[in-house]
Amino acid sequence: MLTRRPRPSARRLLSQRLVVPVMCASVTFIAIVDGAITTVALPSIARQFGLTTAALDGVVVVYPVCLAMAIPASAWLVERFGGKRVLLTALTAFLGSSLLCGAAADLPQLIACRAVQGLSAGVLFPASAALLFATFDAFEQVRIARYMIIPQQIAPAAAPVLGGLLVDHLSWRWVFYVNLPVGVPVVLFGVLFLAEHRGHRPGRFDLTGLLLSAAGLGAAMFGVSEGPNRGWSSAPVLTALALGAVLLTAAVAYQLRTAEPLLRLRLFADRLFRDTNLINLVGLIPILGAMYLGPLFLQQAQGRTALESGTGTFPEAFGVLLTVQVAGVLYARVGPRIIVGCGLAGVSAVLVLFAQCDEDTGLWTFRAYMFLLGVAMGGVFMPTTVASLANIARSDLAQASTLNTVVRQTGGALAPAAVTTVLVLGTPAGAAAEPPLGAYQSAYYVLAVIAAVTAVFAFTLPDGPARAAAAAGSRNRAAQAARNVPRDGVRKA
Fold first, then answer.
1. Contact 292, 353 (CB under 8 A)
2. Cβ distance 181 to 86 under 8 Å?
């Protein structure tokens, strides 16, 4: 008698070692593009609602503020409901709020829907990172990072160009609608093929920790984002920064005393995790600061067009992609300490070159400097992220990914704030609205000093465990290949 063989489930038809990177790369691309594309549409939105562009400041600021507020809860949600459910739910909410943003009838509706977008993105980033690190070991994380860096670099470079095309040929509403044709297939792909990734059963939900940390991060992010625009001595900025400092201090004190904290701050007791996050926090200021400063210099100091500005800064992405491939090969051999230290030293040197630029500097010269900056930057991102988790237990991966995201978002907010502050200080009182050339050169020098100091610190990184973890993963993979033992590619976090 013939028996019918059970039909394999859809998710078993594809290895999770393919599904997880595809999902995470797609989610990262969508969220980064959305965070960068909105500013292009602000003038058109202002005309639609009969407002000034300055009055739309809330549309931009509410996104990072709400993103920061949602991050603390993401690790508990992943542990409680599983990575697949949390990722797909957050992505669906992100797409739904994108649709509502595009259909907004007035400014309050747009800001409210933009807030939901930020809250969803605050869960997307840590959840996708937790899935990646739960699926691949230390050696494989280095290899997969060489491909994951592609959407992270292409997205911010493509966002202004895409936004300009949509606004010019369709309308500003398509800046938000464009997320749907990209995101809906990703959701369907995840529903069909993404397997459940569950960690250990979490304890009770730390509501007090959430209220303190979310409010503190939100207030601090508002103060940092608005400081350059409103002035660091303005009452709203000072109030937000002071309130954020008080609430974050209370959150740290409370969660260090709590048996089951929302944010496992005790992970910072590990020196490698602590030092790599400190490098990410401070090192992102000169890196992202230079990316923010470049278009301003080209358009304001040299009077170039937006298209020239976009093509002038785009070569950075190619430099990063090139170096990441090399760093992936060298990671286990020389260790992240040498790679990150040399990368930051290179960033400092290139920023000094930028500081020599003036009104007569050619666009191709600027492009060459941007390429060199990307080459140096490529030695920083991947090694610090992978090394930060070398000593972290599997049960703590979601928490560690959440803390990494908090640090990166903070560094990302500090970068434009630092640049804008230097430009404002370098602009004489009563001068024209645009800073003089010397202010831009001073900003590049300040960023170069920050990068140099961080490079010195990076050379003290205790990377022995990171090298050992990568080497062990390489040996295990080689032994497994020799035995020809199949793998299903699914690991439990």
1. no
2. no
Q: What is the signed CA dihedral for 487, 490, 492, 493, rounded to 10 degrees?
A: 120
> What is the torsional sign of CA 433, 439, 441, 444?
negative
| Alpha carbons 229 and 174: distance in angstroms, whole number | 27
Is residue 446 within 8 Å of residue 426, measured between CB atoms?
A: no
Is it the case that residue 390 has pLDDT exceeding 70? yes
Lowest mean pLDDT among 165-169, 240-244, 283-287, 375-379: 165-169
Cα separation of 110 and 130, whole Å? 31
**Residue owning tokens 């290949």:** 481
Is there a contact between 54 and 207 (Cβ–Cβ < 8 Å)? no
Question: Quick one: which of 329, 302, 287, 295 has its CA closest to 415?
Answer: 287
Q: Examine the pLDDT at 44 and tell me if it is beyond 70.
A: yes
Structure tokens at 310: 């976009």
Residue 211, class by beta-carbon neighbours within 10 Å (0-12 exposed, 13-18 middle, 19+ buried)? Answer: middle
- Cβ neighbours for 132, distance < 8 A, ≥ 6 positions apart: 20, 21, 24, 141, 144, 148
What value does the mean pLDDT of the chain take? Answer: 79
Residue with token string 């400190």: 278
b/e per residue 361-372 (b: at least 16 CB within 10 A): beeeebbebbbb
Q: Which of 100, 98, 125 is nearest to 38 (CA)?
A: 98
Give the C-alpha distances (Å, rounded to integers) separating 461 from 335, 407, 466.
10, 18, 10
CA distance 374 to 320: 4
Which residue is associated with the tokens 């095309």? 165
For residues 408 and 103, what is the distance between their CA atoms, to the nearest angstrom?
Answer: 31
